[in-house]
Amino acid sequence: MSQQLTVKQQTLSNQISKVGDLKEISFARKTVEFTKMKELESQSISDGLALIFVKVANYAGIKEPISEINKQDIKELLLNRFSSLSLEEIEYAFKLDRYGVFGEPTKHFYLINSEYVSQVLNKYKAWLTKIRIDNDLSISKPVISESNVSESEKIELIKSGVEKCYNHYIEFDTIPDGYLYVYDVFYDLGYLTTDTKEKKKIYDLAKSRVRRKYEAIKPVTYSEKIELKNTISKIKNGNDINEYRIEAKKISLMMFLGSVRDSKKEINDFL
Question: Between the N and C ends of the chain, which has fewer C-beta atoms within 10 Å?
């Protein structure tokens, strides 16, 4: 029986660690594919958390084992407040914190308890939200593998995505997260500007909007203050940041969608 449990734990450990070496954006993109804790059996959660926090303790130099009362409190915290996260995300969150990605690593005072865990995971969720926005990552799980999609099905999926994007624009005057590929669709069809001067105007407008957005942010935590300071420093130094390009694409796409609305035609007439 114990040997069977060891095999299960090893399999689970391999599963969790397999994605741990992914680069940050690649990991963030893949999170939608992970099984969330709320979808796991209780024993799988317990086994996974045990493996994760052994690693966390080892990397932190904590020699004392986690007390039973803290184990139960941490598990209760995770199931009540962070059940939408996967085991893979929890392990990755502590890795990012350890590497200083969130700013100064969270102080644990040689004790792993719910307060420490909560601080790290709150930082992770804020980081994930920002990564998704900055890189226009989808928050929806892929419905079907691309390798299994026929050419006609791909066309229908694109049409459906374009319609959703357009309807969202009409209602909210914004491009929804995860739909920036619609820019590429209409750019390839020749509807979006390729004029260098016009594109520069759009890019300058994008830079201005991004700058104003960051200047209006009021950070709360220390890590947010450091991250904001670094970003504003890049902007003031004239450094190019990925968010400029994303914002420029959104502006260009919204200009086109606005012209479609004004033409009184259907969006599919342009596909």
Answer: N
Residue type, 152: S
* pLDDT single digits (tens) 28-83: 988 988 888 887 777 778 888 988 999 999 999 998 889 889 988 999 999 889 98
Distance CA 264, CA 269 (A): 11
What local confidence, expressed as pLDDT, does residue 4 receive? 42
Q: Which residues have CB under 8 Å from 44's CB, separation 6+? A: 12
Q: The tokens of 235 are what?
A: 């902007």
- Give the CB-side neighbour count of residue 143, counting CA atoms within 13 A: 7
Structure-token pair, residue 57: 């303790």
146 — phi, psi (to 5°)? -60, -35
User: 179-232, pLDDT tens digit by residue?
Assistant: 888 998 999 999 999 999 999 999 999 999 988 888 888 877 776 677 778 778
Which long-range contacts does 15-24 make (Cβ < 8 Å, 24+ apart)? 15/88, 16/48, 16/51, 16/52, 16/87, 16/88, 16/91, 17/91, 19/88, 19/92, 20/88, 20/91, 20/92, 20/95, 24/96, 24/101, 24/131
In Å, what is the CA distance from 176 to each residue of 81, 136, 170, 173, 203?
26, 9, 11, 9, 20
Q: Which residues contact 176 (CB under 8 A, 6 or more apart)?
A: 164, 165, 168
Count of residues in the chain = 271
Q: According to the model, what pLDDT value does residue 105 have?
A: 94
- When pLDDT is cut at 50, 70 and 90, the band that residue 243 belongs to is confident
Q: Is the dihedral of CA 200, 203, 205, 207 positive or negative?
A: negative
**Positive or negative: CA dihedral 114, 119, 122, 123:** negative
Indicate the burial class of 110 (C-beta count within 10 angstroms; 0-12, 13-18, 19 or more).
exposed
